[in-house]
Amino acid sequence: MKAILKLAIVLAVLLAASGCWDSKTIQNLAYVTALGLDYKDGRFMAYVQVLNFLNVARSDKFEIGKNVPAWIGKGEGKTANEALSSLYATSQIKLYWGHIKAIVCSEALLKNKKALRQAYDAINRYHEVRYNILLFGTKEDFSEILSQKSLLYLSPLDTIMDTPEETYEQRSSIEPQYGYKNIAELNEKGRTIILPTISITKQAWQEDKKEKAMFQIDGAFAMHEHRLTGWFSEDDLKGVRWFNKRSRRVFVNIPDNENPAGALVLSKPRHRIQPLIEQDKVRFNVSIKVRAAVEEMTENVSIKEMEEQAAQAVRAEIESSYRKGLATQTDLLNLFGEIYRNDPEAWHRLNEGNRLVLKEDTLNKIEVKVKINQTGKYKGRTLPE
Asked: Does the keyword Metal-binding apply (predicted)?
């Protein structure tokens, strides 16, 4: 009886364990968290960032300020898939691609329409890669980008490259670009995609007296129908943020940056683009409504004056961004896309007739209304002298 009982226990253990024989423990996998893609002389270069999750997991053993190493691998091949697969030869352990949080593309790759399509197909075709990946462009060296740490030596997962939304909520400049949004917009006719560019600066932070490198979003590449139309600085793109209802906090000096009398935070802009088509000539009227809060005042200015000055500042930024794109025929404000979404028949007719061209008067009228609904504890006045 005892022998039968022992045999039953052994069989039960074996049956329970049989379903786990092919499983991998987490320490036996190399988790790719970021991917860099470059293209040179007809060949793809793939750079991967691999982190040890035991070093970045939040636990009782996690030490803030302790350096978290990032491993960087480089592969090369005639195709994007070959460049990625070549890393298997030296990775020692299995690479897992399901935790990629960011993909960074070089300017050389973005300039080559065919190479960009190949890389796009290879990455999105693979089943482990998700659609909520952040997308960036860069002009920096990939070794520098993928080895960059965060403030207080936090892991690369706590940087603008992997968690840009937290910074964007405090300072809404260039909206983060996600893979699923890119897929939705990539084939939309008349749509200009703004791909943020990530760079490294040593001008802002120090550890004691030692300069520390930190990420920043310094501008964006503009893409239209898989074609790179140019790079624009953050200042060039200031007018674009007023067409994004997700803009949470935008600082604006009034009346201008030269002699500011105060500072406002503008949020939740709402826009309307009205196409005017007259005998195949296309123009647009734009209206913007935005909320505001008073952050600082150096002079006593009435609420109405501040609203008018803020509206003038917003209008100037929109005009500036439009003119920055005019030189390269880059529709940064996505004016033509409004025709495609609301009147596709007219869009096809105008597009086939080469009438969708930006001109000095294409942006016809800009109407901006700013409503201040918060003035702080000082009720719209400066401190007493």
From this structure: no
* Residue 158 and residue 208 in one domain: yes
Query: For the segment 62-84, what is each residue's pLDDT rounded down to a tens digit?
Result: 555 567 788 999 999 999 999 99
Q: Can you give the pTM of this predicted structure?
A: 0.87
For the CA atoms of 276, 277, 279, 281, what is the dihedral angle to 10 degrees?
A: 80
pLDDT per residue as tens digits for the range 16-37: 544 454 555 666 788 999 999 9
Range of the domain at 254: 236-385
Domain count, the chain: 2
Residues 157 and 242 placed together within one structural domain of the fold: no
Query: Could you tell me if 246 and 224 lie in one domain?
Result: no
Both ends of the chain: CA-CA distance in Å?
98
Buried b (16+ CB within 10 A) or exposed e, 6-33: eeeeeeeeeeeeeeeeeeeeeeebbbbb
Residues 6+ away with beta carbon under 8 Å from 198:
104, 136, 137, 138, 140, 145, 160, 161, 215, 216, 217, 218
